[in-house]
Amino acid sequence: MATIFTKIINGEIPSYKVAEDENFIAFLDINPNAKGHTLCVPKQEVDKLFDLDENTYLELMKFSRKVAEALKKTVPCKRIGMAVIGLEVPHVHVHLIPLNTMSEMTFTNKISMSSEALTTLSEEIRKQLSQTV
Ligand code: AMP
What we know:
Bound molecules: adenosine monophosphate
CATH superfamily: HIT-like
Largest sheet: 5 strands, antiparallel
Strand content: 15-25%
Structural class: alpha+beta
Shape: globular
Strand order of the largest sheet: 1-2-3-5-4
Distance between the termini: 38 Å
CATH topology: HIT family, subunit A
Order of helices and strands: HEEEHEEH
Radius of gyration: 14 Å
């Protein structure tokens, strides 16, 4: 059965998309650790990060860095944290999290954001990315 992320990639369910190219997509996490928590996902449906072929793995890191740079310019924070977990959704994804405190990397403290706030934020990150040469 297709993962929830494949359904997002196929446009079957909505997402707060921030970036997309031929092989990858990035969208806001709907249950964020912190404002700007973003997931970068290869379109290829593979469960575990280290099972990706080497090229897709390296390209995912490249894509994630581009998104992280735009995120850092959009959301005030000390730095962007990165994590790969995958215990909930068996489809590789890189978590990018704007950090001000260590607790924002715990995945137990969540913040609440309205749909309107998520939409506005995704637009701001997209705009920032479009200005990246
Ligand atoms: P994990 O698989 O443990 O790395 O966690 C999966 C992450 O995906 C969690 O942070 C969820 O909040 C997030 N998530 C699950 N469904 C969606 C969705 N439809 N849109 C955006 N994020 C999601």
